[in-house]
Amino acid sequence: MNPTSALDPEMVREVLDTMILLAEEGMTMICVTHEMSFARRVADRLVFMEAGQIVEEGGPEQMFTAPVQERTRAYFNQIQH
User: Fold this and answer.
1) Does pTM surpass 0.90?
2) Are 44 and 58 in contact (CB under 8 A)?
3) Which of 55, 53, 77, 78 is nearest to 66 (CA)?
């Protein structure tokens, strides 16, 4: 699920803050998101997909700082600049 799809920026922040609180309390969630700072902060595991296929999966720090696949590197390099 993409919990922030079609929300205005104030509502996005409210929803993400609630999800962060739930994660900190130990709730398990599966979430589809383009909110990368949120994913990096909250996720234990990330799955990067393209065209319905898994390209790479791993922990957030590995995925953001040292992805293995070229496609994943290209994506994270683009969003971080």
Assistant:
1) no
2) no
3) 77
Are 72 and 56 a contacting pair, CB within 8 Å? yes
| Look-up of token digits 């998101």 | 33
Q: What is the pLDDT of residues 28-55, one digit of tens each?
A: 888 888 888 888 888 999 999 999 999 9
Count other C-beta atoms under 10 Å from residue 57's C-beta: 15
Mean pLDDT of 4-20: 81
State how far the Cα of 59 lies from the Cα of 46, in Å rounded to an integer.
6
Rounded-to-integer distance, Cα 24 and Cα 72, Å:
27
Query: What mean pLDDT is predicted for residues 57-71?
Result: 95
78's tokens: 């683009």
Instruction: Give me the amino acid identity at 66.
Output: A
Strand partners, 54: 49
